[in-house]
Write a structure and sequence with these properties.
This protein has one helix and eleven strands. By secondary structure, it is mainly beta.
Length: 122
């Protein structure tokens, strides 16, 4: 199972980015998808997840209202729209696939993409 994340970059505080994670059709239709962030020297932190059918989502409290996770079943892609970015949002963002969208622990997710760097300058 391969997950390919993209869309990171350098943005000023208050700006927006949209991350994308593409995977194979079988993976996409079978698993919940999630995004995690890893700041330098820290562990991976849950950001958001979405049920395999796209009907339910889960967010880390601090991202609610600013971040939106969605999925496109035609493109086998999950997105993370990030608005009103803050310097503390900086990190490497990983997409992951797992069985339970309601779980926010990284141990719940079986497959991981390579990560994409997001840097928010103040």
């Amino acid at each position: 199972v391969q997950l390919q994340a993209s869309g990171g970059g350098l943005v000023q505080a208050g700006g927006s980015l949209r991350l994308s994670c593409t995977t194979s059709e079988g993976t996409f239709s079978s698993y919940a998808m999630a995004w995690f962030r890893q700041a330098p020297g820290k562990g991976r932190e849950f950001v958001a997840s979405i049920h395999w059918n796209g009907d339910s989502t889960n967010y880390r409290d601090s991202r609610k209202g600013r971040f939106t996770i969605s999925r496109d079943s035609v493109k086998n892609t999950v997105y993370l729209q990030m608005n009103s970015l803050k310097p503390e949002d900086t990190g490497v963002y990983y997409c992951a696939a797992g069985a339970n969208y309601g779980c926010s622990g990284d141990g719940c997710y079986l497959y991981w993409g390579q990560g994409t760097q997001v840097t928010v300058s103040s």
